Amino acid sequence: MSRIDEYLAGVEAGKTRKLIIFIVAVMYTSFHLITAGIFSLTSLIQTSIHVGFGLLLVFLLFPISKKHILMKVIDYIFILIAIYASVYVVLNYERFIADPFGYSSLDILIGTLLIITILEAARRTVGWSVPILALIMITYTTVGHLIPGQWGHGGLNWEYIVSGLFMTNTGIYGQIVLITATVVAIFLIFGAALEATGATDNFIGIALKLTGRSTGGPAKVSVVSSALFGTISGNAAANVAVTGNFTIPMMKRLHYPSHYAAGVEASASTLGQIMPPIMGASAFIMAQFLGVSYITIIVAAIIPALLFTLGIFMTIHFDAKKRNLQSVETLSNKEVGDGKKLYIPSWRELLSLNSIGILVLPIVILLYLIGDGYTIALSCFYAIVTSIGLFLIKDFRLNGLMTRLSASIKLFTLGARSLATIVPLIVCAQIIVSLLGKTGLGVKLGNLIVSIGADSLLLSLFAAMLFSLILGMGVPTTGAYVLGASMAAPALIELGIVPIAAHFFVLYFAVISAITPPICTGIFIASGIAGSSWLKSAITGLRLCFAAFIVPFIFAYNSNLMLIDGINADILLHITSAIIGVVSFCAMSSGYLIRTNNYFERILLGIAATMLIVPVWYMSTIGFALVLMVLIFQFLQNNMSNNTTGDFAQSSKD
Asked: What is the pTM of this model?
């Protein structure tokens, strides 16, 4: 059983339960590998098996109680419902397709029990927020006829609601769940394969080598490593938990305040979900929503991701210069958390075939096959096979081969556990989206945003921003994006925002919600590691992301930055202007450019930054002139200070 304990690290359960979890996890992951790479199933069968396995694992991994027998019985009842409902759909799918509303009493009973099971599974994995939202939507659907005015509707009876959710491919087994059951699932398994083979261990090594010796090195290491890891994990909270255990203690050892270390890590961990080339699960769903290729999404994400990263990176840089913080080198070979000693690897080590091949080649194959017209699922399947194959043939010693073969099995448990945590969330989101369509509430909410935009597009964008942030409170990015894309994005498109820019606008704020109070899961986890006040950490995180908050507005007004129609000289000028604008925002936020800014300089930088992000040439020109004026003034003042006192270091202290 020691091997199973290793495969299920962090799972608290008895030996028998762990064995059952292991078997179910292997079956679940194998199901997705087989249907991605060998043969496919009809959508209703694929989604019902996917949901059934996911719910089963949730109730095995997150029992309501480990001691009380009655509570265990409740778990077993939910497990039986999940299994029975899945088998029932598989056995009756032809009848469901032929006559989805020709329901029997048994259909309604099973459907009702499944909905209750889904809500409870979501509560155990993501908390109360999403189940409560789903319950509100279900209640609104049934009592709409009692609500007066424009927000009321005809009302639907329970049998109609349940049959629509349970027996059709627009309810529980709808398009969003289908995307998760085919594309997102195999992508998460690919991420698990990279983690199981140790490929992701190179992320921190690369980050240390690239930024560790620079000013503010520890915080910059956090940005780079979290961005790299986040593009695979697609989950800010998971990202913080993995990279934060290394980067936060390292920052604290170099006298970064604990709340600052937590804010840096939480902010950095949001980056990976919008960082090409993989960008997390939401990118695959966006491609399906928009009906465009995944490559189109990657290209559109390049400049916004650059601006987002630059915003956090330069704020950290200016903070470090202002406070004269040390580089990572001073901690070389010293302990920095989890009993690990800091070691900065050489480029020879990082770029060796064994190290870089396992990380880069599978990703290259994934992107090449997608670009060559293969489905995302099949491309991911071949990338997984490549990753495991390279790992197994790392060397040909029998002992080493057996050890790596055993380690590679971990991908089955890692992949299944990642899937189990998002299945209830996605199914709840699908229920909400389905009922939004049936009641017309989605259109009404969209019309509200559009009506605001009749007076001001900026106000509509602010309304969509708040909407996305609220939806993202305590909810993983994928679920928050799905809900926002169903309600806010159509309204923005109607107001004239380019579709891909509207969807990215919603995605960015769904990502940022992980560090936005009052429910900010990324901040909560980072603060726990740092031992800091979560509120102080959240305020720091928001300040670090101040420029990042501006980025979605930049590409909403100037969709050319998304390279939809390629690149030319005008677009290059817009990109340059946006980059200088973001850096100016960072300098204003940090209070430092070449030296500490006075209040007048901060005001000038804020005005300049605002003018630089407006896609009008004369505004950008004035903004650039203002930044140049501040730079020249600070440069001359520094020279005068050096000539008179020779004490530049003292004059630039906070």
From this structure: 0.78
